[in-house]
Amino acid sequence: DVKVTQSSRYLVKRTGEKVFLECVQDMDHENMFWYRQDPGLGLRLIYFSYDVKMKEKGDIPEGYSVSREKKERFSLILESASTNQTSMYLCASSVRAYKNTGELFFGEGSRLTVL
Amino acid sequence: GQNIDQPTEMTATEGAIVQINCTYQTSGFNGLFWYQQHAGEAPTFLSYNVLDGLEEKGRFSSFLSRSKGYSYLLLKELQMKDSASYLCAAPSRNSGAGSYQLTFGKGTKLSVIP
Fold it and tell me: Which end of chain A is more exposed for a tag (fewer CB within 10 A), N or C?
């Protein structure tokens, strides 16, 4: 079975803290993605990676960075958390496809609250 | 870029048929996805259309018209467990390295009532 695991289901952090969200997939997928999901705004792409050490900005990268040192692991970093980063964060992975992302497999999500 | 529109909410009766529409404007078309997301859970893949026409998969079907920039998801014999959000999504080429990203519509929340 396909498995995308996010390290924490729920986190509470304070403004200004550095936050790490970890995601691991066991399917040997080339592509990995980080989205955030907010009511009324839907899923918005923060960053994605199509290969180890490669990263691409999505639609809302400001305030975030990512790291992909190994194929199976994609980390999202909030250098200095702010209250407007309170959200549900979803990681996904997919196999490389021609002119496409391929079917995305999602993790269970990490609900981050920044106080 | 991508612009994807779908209705915010819909309500339908158990046992009925419901059609959820999605219109899109893309810079280059590379297929259209539908995902289902139950409250508090992760989205899961339902269908992918790249050619015009209807693709049927059990109680769920998805239709695509590339010339009209239009797709719909058809759910038949509705069950209570079909209450969920349905997300339309389209891949597009990222302006960076030319790899592909998936952009989602805001989702349609379907409520199935007895």
Answer: N
